[in-house]
């Protein structure tokens, strides 16, 4: 085992003051996201951690990709029969987290996940590479499979059956979610561990803004 207690990082790249805040947190999210997009040290700006709560209140987390953000919320796509999909169907309260280490910035979002309308899921599904479309069909996500060959064989069978048809029907078990936020926290690393934490909370259709102690 290894003792990591002496690991230290000095945070000094920025600050978050009240004068920089927007009335709507989605405006600030967009500002921070575009800043991260411009950094050559971040390879996947849209990678985010998604946390769900499963049966018996067991939490589970994984990385997924943000595919769109709107005034309403944050959109990602997945297999509805996966562990995350099953968890969301029982408890739609989820948490998203973006951590951009090179900027010393973090955004944590609490919200309610709702399925997208089928036409929006159709549109995104057909924008994907053909191989990704076929992969979404053949993979029984989160289920036990005997080996890797099981997937490869199913993929080959589907390729033959579809004859590389560019218009594949989206399976009903695959589609998008939008996470509609009710709380968003913006974290900026600061010296001496006195980090900036600004929290937006949705109350009666208005966002209130609070500063939390680090």
UniProtKB/TrEMBL annotation:
GO MF annotation terms: FMN binding; pyridoxamine phosphate oxidase activity
What domain of life does the native source organism fall in?
Bacteria
Pyridoxine 5'-phosphate oxidase dimerisation C-terminal domain residues: 174-214
UniProt cofactor note: Binds 1 FMN per subunit.
* This enzyme's EC code(s): 1.4.3.5
- Cofactor(s) for this protein? FMN
Record-annotated membrane-spanning stretches: none
Protein name from the UniProt record: Pyridoxine/pyridoxamine 5'-phosphate oxidase
């Amino acid at each position: 085992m290894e003792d990591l207690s002496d690991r230290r990082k000095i945070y000094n790249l920025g600050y978050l003051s009240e004068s920089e805040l927007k009335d709507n947190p989605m405006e600030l999210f967009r500002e921070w996201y575009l800043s991260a997009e411009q950094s050559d040290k971040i390879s996947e700006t849209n990678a985010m951690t998604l946390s769900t709560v499963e049966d018996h209140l067991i939490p589970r987390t994984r990385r997924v990709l943000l595919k769109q953000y709107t005034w309403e919320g944050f959109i990602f796509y997945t297999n509805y029969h996966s562990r995350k999909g099953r968890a969301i169907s029982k408890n739609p309260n989820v948490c998203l987290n973006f951590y951009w280490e090179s900027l010393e910035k973090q955004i944590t979002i609490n919200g309610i996940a709702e399925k997208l309308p089928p036409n929006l899921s159709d549109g995104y599904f057909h924008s994907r590479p053909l191989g990704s479309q076929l992969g979404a069909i053949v993979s029984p996500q989160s289920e036990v499979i005997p080996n890797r060959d099981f997937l490869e064989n199913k993929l080959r069978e589907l390729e033959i059956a579809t004859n590389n048809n560019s218009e594949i029907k989206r399976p009903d078990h695959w589609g998008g979610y939008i996470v509609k936020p009710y709380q968003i926290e913006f974290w900026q690393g600061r010296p001496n561990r006195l980090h900036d934490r600004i929290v937006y909370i949705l109350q009666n259709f208005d966002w209130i803004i609070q500063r939390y102690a680090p």
